[in-house]
Amino acid sequence: MRELSYRMLEMKASSVRKLTKYAEEAEAKGKKIYRLNIGQPDLHVPQEYYERIRAFDEPTVEYMPSNGIPELLEAVEKYYKGAGIDIDKKHIYITTGGTEAVMFTLLALTNPGDEFVLFEPYYSNYNTFFTITGATPVAVTTYAENGFHIDRESLEAKITDKTKAIFITNPGNPTGTVLTKEEVRMVADVAKKYDLYIISDEVYREMVFDGREITSFGFLEDIHDRLVLVDSVSKRFNACGARIGAVISKNQEIMDLISKLCQGRLAVSTLEQQGAVGLYSTGYRVIHQIRDEFEKRRNVVFENLKKIPGVFCEKPEGAFYMICKLPVEDAGEFLKWMLLEFDDNGETVMAAPGDGFYATEGLGRDEIRIAYVLETDKLARALQILAKGLEVYNNKIK
Ligand SMILES: *Cc1c(COP(=O)(O)O)cnc(C)c1O
Q1: Which of 80, 276, 332, 391 has the highest Cβ tally under 10 A?
Q2: Atom of ligand 1 nearest to the CA of 102
Q3: What is the CATH number of the domain that holds 125?
Q4: Which EC number(s) are documented for this chain (predicted)?
Q5: How many domains does the structure of the chain reveal?
Q6: Does pTM top 0.90 for this prediction?
Q7: Over 80: is that where the pLDDT of 40 sits?
Q8: How many A from CA of 95 to the centre of ligand 1?
Q9: pLDDT over 70 (residue 99)
């Protein structure tokens, strides 16, 4: 047979899903698994979403305009203005999730061989789009020891004459780090100095804890010409399956290129866009409910992790993830062992191996990502199991 695409053959399988077959094996044997591996929130989707979809009463499900239905563009504009970010409908294109927004942005900004700088550990699902677009991600390593915060020197050190953009996720997945105002300003200044674009994935924008202020790049008017925002209803309204996102920029040239891609894929789902109008109509009622719930869960996870000997992590500041260091050499092997060989009263825990979130080979091997997407009592139990597992595992190895 003729050879298949080398781009796809070289693409790495998702690290989050690598353990799935062991989980299935464990479940087949009747083990109960607390899943902390996947970033899929479990909270209810607001009723307004379903009501809006039920109210749809057209005889045909037509293609909608490729940039999005007018009611949703208005809703997103209103949300942005309410957030203090001066964005107009014409700067917004609705996409099939934030994921499509990332892909379209990279296609519009980069040629194969171009570089863009990002901070590792980063959301590993991006790798799919990096491979497709052919631009090279250049990673600045950040560290658990200072809560994965960033600094100017290590950012500037990675910039070359091939660099096109700085790619940021704020608040961060998998780190749970919320950039400070100063860090956001610093990135903006570096982008101006080297004439770079900024792609800012802010799908967790409001999920910031302990009374922190939101730090969006959208607040900095002086970089609006070089900024592309990636947005989504998935996390803001707990509606991952709706597949509604947005790509936002005040740079008309960029939007014109992205428009070609939007037209090529014709349109985004007609009904889901209606549902998203319902989601935005709930405003900060739902957004703050979700934030408060995850802050509670963060507290439970962090308090319990602190008690486990040899585990290290800084207190996460936002989103619903964290990276923590375990007292093991190979966290992937440990997680596999937890699924296949260990149980506490028939129960065990699954998390994501940390190394999959790094571009640099060898980093993150003693780390795991925890997505705290379970109710607080289940989280407490899951961490109790993790603590017991670590104790047994380390005694066995000695
Ligand atoms: C979940 C997630 C997305 C996008 O999700 P969609 O469901 O495609 O909107 C984008 N970036 C990060 C960092 C995420 O965690």
Answers
A1: 276
A2: 10
A3: 3.40.640.10
A4: 2.6.1.-
A5: 2
A6: yes
A7: no
A8: 12
A9: yes
Q: What integer pLDDT is reported at residue 38 of this predicted model? A: 81
* pLDDT, tens only, 364-373: 999 999 999 9
- Is the CB of 98 inside a 6 Å radius of any atom of ligand 1? yes
Cα 282 from Cα 49, distance rounded (Å):
9
**Token pair of 345 as six digits:** 């009263």
- Give the distance (Å) from ligand 1 centre to CA of residue 388: 32
Confidence of residue 6 (pLDDT cuts 50, 70, 90): confident
Nearest residue by C-alpha to atom 5 in ligand 1: 98
Q: How far is the CA of 200 from the centre of ligand 1 (A)?
A: 12
Token match 């795991």: residue? 368
C-alpha 345/C-alpha 46 separation (Å) is 36
Q: 59, exposed or middle or buried, with CB in 10 Å at 0-12, 13-18, 19+?
A: exposed
Helix H, strand E, coil C: the string for 7-63 is: HHHHCCCCCCCCCHHHHHHHHHCCCEEEECCCCCCCCCCCHHHHHHHHCCCCCCCCC
Q: State the average pLDDT for the chain.
A: 95
Give the residue, by CA position, lying nearest to ligand 1 atom 4.
Answer: 98
Q: Return the best residue to mutate from 123, 236, 279, 290 for the ligand 1 pocket (most ligand atoms within 8 A of CB).
A: 123
The verdict on the CB of residue 127 being under 6 Å from ligand 1 is no
Lookup: tokens for 140: 């600045």
- DSSP reduced 3-state for 251: coil
C-beta 174 within 6 A of ligand 1: no
For residues 246 and 237, is the Cβ–Cβ distance under 8 A?
Answer: no
Q: What digits encode the pLDDT tens for the residues 208-257?
A: 999 999 999 999 999 999 999 999 999 999 999 999 999 999 999 999 99
Q: Could you say which of 234, 264, 282 is where a domain stops? A: 282
Q: Is 37 in the pocket of ligand 1 (CB under 6 A)?
A: no
Domain coverage including residue 221: 47-282
CB 321 within 8 A of CB 369: yes
